[in-house]
Specification:
Distance between the termini: 31 Å
Order of helices and strands: HEEEEEEEEEEEEHHHEEEEEEEEEEEE
Helix content: 10-25%
Strand content: over 45%
Number of strands: 24
Shape: elongated
Structural class: mainly beta
Number of domains: 2
Length: 395
Protein backbone atom coordinates (compact mmCIF):
# COMPACT_ATOMS: atom_id res chain seq x y z
CA UNK A 1 0.00 0.00 0.00
CA UNK A 2 2.88 2.40 0.72
CA UNK A 3 4.33 1.61 -2.70
CA UNK A 4 0.96 2.35 -4.32
CA UNK A 5 0.76 5.68 -2.50
CA UNK A 6 4.32 6.51 -3.56
CA UNK A 7 3.46 5.83 -7.19
CA UNK A 8 0.37 8.03 -6.98
CA UNK A 9 2.42 10.91 -5.54
CA UNK A 10 5.01 10.48 -8.29
CA UNK A 11 2.22 10.46 -10.85
CA UNK A 12 0.78 13.77 -9.72
CA UNK A 13 4.30 15.25 -9.63
CA UNK A 14 4.99 14.01 -13.15
CA UNK A 15 1.64 15.30 -14.35
CA UNK A 16 2.59 18.79 -13.25
CA UNK A 17 5.88 18.62 -15.15
CA UNK A 18 4.68 17.48 -18.55
CA UNK A 19 1.46 19.32 -19.23
CA UNK A 20 2.71 22.65 -20.64
CA UNK A 21 4.92 22.93 -23.71
CA UNK A 22 6.20 25.89 -25.76
CA UNK A 23 3.48 27.19 -28.03
CA UNK A 24 1.53 30.21 -29.20
CA UNK A 25 -1.86 31.50 -30.19
CA UNK A 26 -2.95 34.19 -32.62
CA UNK A 27 -5.79 36.32 -31.32
CA UNK A 28 -8.67 37.74 -33.35
CA UNK A 29 -6.65 40.93 -33.98
CA UNK A 30 -3.90 38.89 -35.65
CA UNK A 31 -1.40 39.29 -32.81
CA UNK A 32 0.80 36.25 -32.11
CA UNK A 33 1.24 35.59 -28.39
CA UNK A 34 3.97 33.13 -27.43
CA UNK A 35 4.14 31.18 -24.19
CA UNK A 36 3.27 27.72 -22.89
CA UNK A 37 0.23 25.68 -23.95
CA UNK A 38 -1.14 22.61 -22.17
CA UNK A 39 -0.60 19.83 -24.71
CA UNK A 40 -3.51 17.42 -24.43
CA UNK A 41 -2.82 15.48 -27.63
CA UNK A 42 -6.33 16.41 -28.72
CA UNK A 43 -8.63 13.71 -30.06
CA UNK A 44 -11.50 16.14 -30.58
CA UNK A 45 -11.31 19.66 -31.93
CA UNK A 46 -10.62 21.93 -28.93
CA UNK A 47 -12.93 24.74 -27.88
CA UNK A 48 -10.38 26.36 -25.54
CA UNK A 49 -6.74 26.10 -24.51
CA UNK A 50 -4.86 26.50 -21.24
CA UNK A 51 -2.13 29.10 -21.71
CA UNK A 52 0.69 30.52 -19.57
CA UNK A 53 2.93 33.40 -20.59
CA UNK A 54 5.83 31.69 -18.80
CA UNK A 55 6.50 28.83 -16.39
CA UNK A 56 5.67 30.88 -13.28
CA UNK A 57 2.60 32.68 -14.66
CA UNK A 58 -0.95 31.67 -13.74
CA UNK A 59 -2.99 29.58 -16.17
CA UNK A 60 -5.32 31.51 -18.48
CA UNK A 61 -8.17 29.82 -20.34
CA UNK A 62 -8.27 31.17 -23.89
CA UNK A 63 -11.55 30.32 -25.59
CA UNK A 64 -12.25 29.67 -29.25
CA UNK A 65 -13.88 33.09 -29.61
CA UNK A 66 -10.47 34.65 -28.83
CA UNK A 67 -8.38 32.44 -31.13
CA UNK A 68 -7.63 32.49 -34.85
CA UNK A 69 -4.86 29.89 -34.62
CA UNK A 70 -2.72 28.13 -32.03
CA UNK A 71 0.18 25.72 -32.07
CA UNK A 72 2.19 23.54 -29.68
CA UNK A 73 5.82 22.78 -30.49
CA UNK A 74 6.17 21.10 -33.87
CA UNK A 75 3.30 18.69 -33.22
CA UNK A 76 0.02 20.57 -33.46
CA UNK A 77 -1.42 23.54 -35.33
CA UNK A 78 -5.14 24.39 -35.16
CA UNK A 79 -6.85 27.09 -37.25
CA UNK A 80 -10.34 28.48 -36.77
CA UNK A 81 -12.82 28.54 -39.65
CA UNK A 82 -16.53 28.95 -40.25
CA UNK A 83 -17.14 25.69 -42.10
CA UNK A 84 -19.92 23.59 -43.55
CA UNK A 85 -19.68 20.08 -42.10
CA UNK A 86 -21.66 16.96 -42.98
CA UNK A 87 -23.22 15.63 -39.78
CA UNK A 88 -24.65 12.45 -41.33
CA UNK A 89 -24.45 9.48 -38.97
CA UNK A 90 -22.41 6.35 -39.75
CA UNK A 91 -24.45 4.18 -37.40
CA UNK A 92 -26.17 1.48 -39.46
CA UNK A 93 -29.47 1.98 -37.62
CA UNK A 94 -29.39 5.72 -38.28
CA UNK A 95 -28.24 5.87 -41.91
CA UNK A 96 -30.00 8.46 -44.01
CA UNK A 97 -31.65 7.54 -47.34
CA UNK A 98 -30.19 10.78 -48.69
CA UNK A 99 -27.00 10.30 -50.73
CA UNK A 100 -25.99 13.95 -50.41
CA UNK A 101 -24.21 15.49 -47.41
CA UNK A 102 -26.36 17.03 -44.67
CA UNK A 103 -24.53 20.30 -44.19
CA UNK A 104 -24.49 22.27 -40.99
CA UNK A 105 -22.59 25.52 -40.34
CA UNK A 106 -20.07 25.40 -37.50
CA UNK A 107 -17.15 27.35 -36.12
CA UNK A 108 -14.30 24.95 -35.37
CA UNK A 109 -10.59 24.80 -34.74
CA UNK A 110 -9.41 22.39 -37.44
CA UNK A 111 -6.21 20.42 -36.94
CA UNK A 112 -3.52 20.74 -39.61
CA UNK A 113 -2.50 17.22 -40.63
CA UNK A 114 -0.15 18.02 -43.51
CA UNK A 115 0.43 21.16 -45.56
CA UNK A 116 2.07 22.57 -48.67
CA UNK A 117 0.40 23.59 -51.93
CA UNK A 118 -2.70 21.97 -50.42
CA UNK A 119 -3.50 21.64 -46.72
CA UNK A 120 -5.24 18.64 -45.19
CA UNK A 121 -7.29 19.45 -42.08
CA UNK A 122 -9.06 17.14 -39.66
CA UNK A 123 -12.37 17.71 -37.88
CA UNK A 124 -13.13 15.31 -35.03
CA UNK A 125 -16.12 15.53 -32.73
CA UNK A 126 -16.28 12.30 -30.73
CA UNK A 127 -17.33 9.65 -33.30
CA UNK A 128 -17.71 12.13 -36.15
CA UNK A 129 -14.49 12.45 -38.17
CA UNK A 130 -14.22 14.57 -41.31
CA UNK A 131 -11.32 15.77 -43.47
CA UNK A 132 -11.06 19.15 -45.14
CA UNK A 133 -8.88 20.57 -47.90
CA UNK A 134 -7.76 24.10 -48.70
CA UNK A 135 -5.40 25.73 -51.20
CA UNK A 136 -3.92 29.18 -51.67
CA UNK A 137 -7.03 30.12 -53.65
CA UNK A 138 -9.60 29.01 -51.06
CA UNK A 139 -10.25 31.14 -48.00
CA UNK A 140 -12.32 28.46 -46.24
CA UNK A 141 -11.49 24.72 -46.24
CA UNK A 142 -13.89 22.45 -48.12
CA UNK A 143 -14.94 19.13 -46.66
CA UNK A 144 -13.88 16.02 -48.50
CA UNK A 145 -17.13 14.09 -48.85
CA UNK A 146 -17.45 10.43 -47.91
CA UNK A 147 -20.88 9.26 -46.82
CA UNK A 148 -22.65 5.98 -46.21
CA UNK A 149 -26.40 5.99 -46.84
CA UNK A 150 -29.31 3.60 -46.95
CA UNK A 151 -30.00 2.24 -50.43
CA UNK A 152 -33.08 0.00 -50.23
CA UNK A 153 -31.84 -2.96 -48.14
CA UNK A 154 -28.18 -2.21 -48.78
CA UNK A 155 -25.59 0.40 -47.86
CA UNK A 156 -24.61 2.90 -50.53
CA UNK A 157 -21.36 4.85 -50.61
CA UNK A 158 -20.86 8.43 -51.73
CA UNK A 159 -17.11 8.76 -52.29
CA UNK A 160 -17.09 12.19 -53.87
CA UNK A 161 -13.79 12.95 -52.10
CA UNK A 162 -11.94 10.97 -54.77
CA UNK A 163 -13.27 13.21 -57.54
CA UNK A 164 -12.60 16.31 -55.42
CA UNK A 165 -8.96 15.39 -54.98
CA UNK A 166 -8.52 14.30 -58.60
CA UNK A 167 -9.82 17.67 -59.84
CA UNK A 168 -7.43 19.41 -57.45
CA UNK A 169 -4.32 17.28 -57.88
CA UNK A 170 -4.71 15.45 -61.19
CA UNK A 171 -2.03 16.24 -63.73
CA UNK A 172 0.64 17.09 -61.15
CA UNK A 173 2.36 13.73 -61.40
CA UNK A 174 -0.83 11.98 -60.27
CA UNK A 175 -3.26 10.05 -62.47
CA UNK A 176 -6.84 8.92 -61.94
CA UNK A 177 -5.80 5.46 -60.75
CA UNK A 178 -4.03 7.11 -57.79
CA UNK A 179 -7.44 8.22 -56.51
CA UNK A 180 -9.79 5.39 -57.54
CA UNK A 181 -8.89 3.12 -54.61
CA UNK A 182 -8.24 5.88 -52.08
CA UNK A 183 -9.75 5.26 -48.64
CA UNK A 184 -11.21 7.95 -46.39
CA UNK A 185 -8.62 7.68 -43.63
CA UNK A 186 -5.64 9.68 -42.45
CA UNK A 187 -2.94 7.37 -43.80
CA UNK A 188 -4.28 7.30 -47.37
CA UNK A 189 -5.01 11.00 -47.46
CA UNK A 190 -1.64 12.01 -46.00
CA UNK A 191 0.11 9.83 -48.56
CA UNK A 192 -1.67 11.46 -51.54
CA UNK A 193 -1.30 15.00 -50.13
CA UNK A 194 2.41 14.52 -49.46
CA UNK A 195 2.95 13.18 -52.97
CA UNK A 196 1.16 16.18 -54.44
CA UNK A 197 2.90 18.72 -52.20
CA UNK A 198 6.34 17.27 -52.94
CA UNK A 199 9.24 19.17 -51.43
CA UNK A 200 6.86 21.82 -50.07
CA UNK A 201 5.15 19.36 -47.75
CA UNK A 202 5.16 19.88 -43.99
CA UNK A 203 3.76 16.69 -42.52
CA UNK A 204 2.68 17.11 -38.90
CA UNK A 205 0.88 13.76 -38.72
CA UNK A 206 4.00 11.76 -37.85
CA UNK A 207 4.59 13.84 -34.70
CA UNK A 208 0.96 13.71 -33.53
CA UNK A 209 -0.43 11.05 -31.20
CA UNK A 210 -0.67 7.66 -32.89
CA UNK A 211 -1.89 4.31 -31.74
CA UNK A 212 0.84 1.83 -30.84
CA UNK A 213 1.05 -1.82 -29.85
CA UNK A 214 3.35 -3.18 -27.14
CA UNK A 215 4.17 -6.76 -26.17
CA UNK A 216 5.86 -7.50 -22.85
CA UNK A 217 7.19 -10.58 -21.09
CA UNK A 218 6.07 -10.45 -17.45
CA UNK A 219 7.45 -12.28 -14.43
CA UNK A 220 7.16 -11.75 -10.70
CA UNK A 221 6.12 -13.05 -7.32
CA UNK A 222 2.63 -13.02 -5.82
CA UNK A 223 1.78 -13.29 -2.13
CA UNK A 224 -1.42 -15.30 -1.97
CA UNK A 225 -3.66 -16.78 0.69
CA UNK A 226 -6.92 -18.69 0.85
CA UNK A 227 -9.62 -18.83 3.52
CA UNK A 228 -11.97 -21.84 3.63
CA UNK A 229 -15.22 -22.60 5.44
CA UNK A 230 -17.41 -25.73 5.57
CA UNK A 231 -20.69 -25.04 7.38
CA UNK A 232 -21.31 -28.78 7.88
CA UNK A 233 -18.18 -29.42 9.97
CA UNK A 234 -17.36 -27.26 12.98
CA UNK A 235 -13.65 -28.08 12.75
CA UNK A 236 -13.51 -26.75 9.17
CA UNK A 237 -15.72 -23.69 9.72
CA UNK A 238 -12.85 -21.20 9.70
CA UNK A 239 -9.65 -22.39 8.00
CA UNK A 240 -6.76 -20.18 6.93
CA UNK A 241 -4.48 -21.95 4.47
CA UNK A 242 -1.82 -19.33 5.01
CA UNK A 243 0.09 -16.93 2.80
CA UNK A 244 2.36 -18.42 0.16
CA UNK A 245 4.91 -16.83 -2.15
CA UNK A 246 4.25 -18.08 -5.66
CA UNK A 247 5.95 -17.27 -8.97
CA UNK A 248 4.04 -15.76 -11.86
CA UNK A 249 5.07 -15.71 -15.51
CA UNK A 250 3.25 -14.60 -18.59
CA UNK A 251 2.83 -11.97 -21.28
CA UNK A 252 1.06 -8.64 -21.65
CA UNK A 253 -0.36 -7.01 -24.77
CA UNK A 254 -1.08 -3.29 -24.74
CA UNK A 255 -2.67 -0.99 -27.29
CA UNK A 256 -1.78 2.68 -26.78
CA UNK A 257 -4.75 4.86 -27.72
CA UNK A 258 -4.04 7.52 -30.39
CA UNK A 259 -4.91 10.63 -28.38
CA UNK A 260 -4.12 12.49 -25.15
CA UNK A 261 -0.38 12.24 -25.81
CA UNK A 262 -0.44 8.42 -25.74
CA UNK A 263 -1.19 8.36 -22.03
CA UNK A 264 -3.98 5.75 -22.18
CA UNK A 265 -3.58 2.07 -22.96
CA UNK A 266 -5.83 -0.98 -23.16
CA UNK A 267 -4.37 -4.09 -21.53
CA UNK A 268 -4.76 -7.78 -22.22
CA UNK A 269 -2.53 -10.20 -20.38
CA UNK A 270 -2.03 -13.86 -19.57
CA UNK A 271 -0.09 -15.19 -16.58
CA UNK A 272 0.31 -18.62 -14.99
CA UNK A 273 0.17 -19.13 -11.21
CA UNK A 274 -0.13 -22.15 -8.93
CA UNK A 275 -1.05 -22.00 -5.22
CA UNK A 276 -0.66 -25.04 -2.96
CA UNK A 277 -1.23 -25.28 0.79
CA UNK A 278 -2.66 -27.51 3.52
CA UNK A 279 -4.25 -27.27 6.96
CA UNK A 280 -4.34 -30.07 9.54
CA UNK A 281 -7.17 -30.83 11.97
CA UNK A 282 -5.58 -33.86 13.61
CA UNK A 283 -2.92 -36.48 12.99
CA UNK A 284 -5.17 -38.22 10.48
CA UNK A 285 -7.37 -35.43 9.09
CA UNK A 286 -6.27 -32.57 6.87
CA UNK A 287 -7.30 -30.25 4.08
CA UNK A 288 -5.20 -29.70 0.98
CA UNK A 289 -5.72 -27.16 -1.75
CA UNK A 290 -4.19 -26.95 -5.20
CA UNK A 291 -5.21 -23.97 -7.31
CA UNK A 292 -3.53 -23.66 -10.71
CA UNK A 293 -4.79 -21.14 -13.22
CA UNK A 294 -4.07 -18.74 -16.04
CA UNK A 295 -5.06 -15.21 -15.14
CA UNK A 296 -6.21 -13.02 -18.05
CA UNK A 297 -6.39 -9.38 -16.94
CA UNK A 298 -8.30 -6.94 -19.17
CA UNK A 299 -8.08 -3.28 -18.23
CA UNK A 300 -7.02 0.31 -18.72
CA UNK A 301 -3.65 1.91 -17.99
CA UNK A 302 -2.83 5.61 -17.62
CA UNK A 303 0.70 6.94 -17.95
CA UNK A 304 2.23 10.03 -16.35
CA UNK A 305 5.40 10.87 -18.26
CA UNK A 306 8.29 12.54 -16.47
CA UNK A 307 10.66 12.21 -19.46
CA UNK A 308 10.57 10.41 -22.81
CA UNK A 309 11.89 7.26 -21.08
CA UNK A 310 10.54 7.56 -17.53
CA UNK A 311 6.87 7.22 -16.64
CA UNK A 312 4.67 6.31 -13.71
CA UNK A 313 1.48 4.39 -14.51
CA UNK A 314 -1.74 3.31 -12.86
CA UNK A 315 -4.03 0.57 -14.12
CA UNK A 316 -7.33 -1.01 -13.22
CA UNK A 317 -9.09 -3.97 -14.74
CA UNK A 318 -10.91 -7.26 -14.43
CA UNK A 319 -9.32 -10.70 -14.21
CA UNK A 320 -10.86 -13.50 -16.21
CA UNK A 321 -9.37 -16.65 -14.70
CA UNK A 322 -9.00 -19.90 -16.61
CA UNK A 323 -8.65 -22.63 -14.01
CA UNK A 324 -6.47 -25.66 -14.65
CA UNK A 325 -6.14 -28.60 -12.22
CA UNK A 326 -7.72 -26.97 -9.16
CA UNK A 327 -9.39 -28.58 -6.15
CA UNK A 328 -9.68 -28.76 -2.38
CA UNK A 329 -9.25 -32.24 -0.87
CA UNK A 330 -10.42 -33.59 2.50
CA UNK A 331 -7.91 -36.24 3.55
CA UNK A 332 -8.56 -38.91 6.20
CA UNK A 333 -5.67 -41.34 6.69
CA UNK A 334 -7.33 -43.22 9.58
CA UNK A 335 -8.25 -46.88 9.05
CA UNK A 336 -11.41 -46.97 6.97
CA UNK A 337 -11.08 -43.30 6.13
CA UNK A 338 -11.32 -41.91 2.62
CA UNK A 339 -10.50 -38.77 0.68
CA UNK A 340 -13.13 -36.38 -0.65
CA UNK A 341 -12.23 -33.95 -3.43
CA UNK A 342 -14.10 -30.73 -4.26
CA UNK A 343 -13.39 -29.08 -7.59
CA UNK A 344 -12.72 -25.36 -7.74
CA UNK A 345 -15.27 -24.20 -10.27
CA UNK A 346 -15.07 -20.44 -10.70
CA UNK A 347 -12.83 -17.47 -10.14
CA UNK A 348 -12.66 -13.89 -11.36
CA UNK A 349 -12.06 -10.54 -9.70
CA UNK A 350 -10.98 -6.94 -10.15
CA UNK A 351 -7.39 -5.78 -9.98
CA UNK A 352 -5.49 -2.51 -9.63
CA UNK A 353 -1.83 -1.67 -10.01
CA UNK A 354 0.76 1.07 -9.95
CA UNK A 355 4.27 1.05 -11.33
CA UNK A 356 7.25 2.73 -12.89
CA UNK A 357 8.51 2.31 -16.45
CA UNK A 358 11.96 3.20 -17.71
CA UNK A 359 12.66 2.45 -21.36
CA UNK A 360 11.75 -1.19 -22.01
CA UNK A 361 11.74 -2.17 -18.32
CA UNK A 362 8.83 -1.75 -15.90
CA UNK A 363 8.04 -2.74 -12.32
CA UNK A 364 4.50 -2.86 -10.96
CA UNK A 365 2.80 -3.46 -7.63
CA UNK A 366 -0.49 -5.23 -8.32
CA UNK A 367 -3.36 -5.87 -5.93
CA UNK A 368 -6.12 -8.41 -6.62
CA UNK A 369 -9.46 -8.26 -4.85
CA UNK A 370 -10.78 -11.27 -2.99
CA UNK A 371 -12.53 -13.86 -5.16
CA UNK A 372 -14.81 -16.76 -4.25
CA UNK A 373 -13.62 -19.91 -6.02
CA UNK A 374 -16.36 -22.38 -5.02
CA UNK A 375 -19.94 -22.52 -6.27
CA UNK A 376 -21.51 -24.52 -3.43
CA UNK A 377 -24.05 -23.35 -0.85
CA UNK A 378 -22.37 -24.89 2.21
CA UNK A 379 -18.73 -24.31 1.17
CA UNK A 380 -16.87 -21.04 0.88
CA UNK A 381 -13.29 -20.44 -0.29
CA UNK A 382 -11.85 -16.99 -0.89
CA UNK A 383 -8.55 -16.42 -2.68
CA UNK A 384 -6.68 -13.13 -2.44
CA UNK A 385 -3.26 -11.99 -3.67
CA UNK A 386 -0.91 -9.09 -4.25
CA UNK A 387 2.58 -8.96 -5.65
CA UNK A 388 5.39 -7.38 -7.60
CA UNK A 389 5.69 -7.85 -11.37
CA UNK A 390 8.64 -6.99 -13.59
CA UNK A 391 8.22 -6.73 -17.36
CA UNK A 392 10.38 -6.27 -20.45
CA UNK A 393 9.01 -4.84 -23.69
CA UNK A 394 9.96 -7.04 -26.63
CA UNK A 395 7.84 -5.24 -29.23
Amino acid sequence: MRFLLFCCLCAFSALGQIKFEPGYYINVDGTKISGLVRNLGWKNNPVAIDFKSDATAPVTIVRISEIKEFGVGSDYVFRKFQIQVDLSSKDIDRLSPNKNPEWQPEVALLKVVTSGKSILYEYNDHNLRRFFVSTSTTAVPEQLVAKEYRLNDKIGYNNTFRQQLFHLMGGAGLVESDFSSLNYNEDDLVRIFNKYNGEQRQDLSAAQSKGDFNVRIVAGVMFAKMAFSDERVQAWSDVEFGQKTIPSIGAEFEYILPFNRNKWGILLGAGYQSYKSDARQSATRSLETEYSFIEVPVGLRHYFFATDKLAVFLNVGYNVVVKLDSHITYRNSAPGGFDNRVEITRSSNVMAGAGIQYGRLAAEFRLHAKRDVLDLVYLDANYQSFGLLVSYKVL
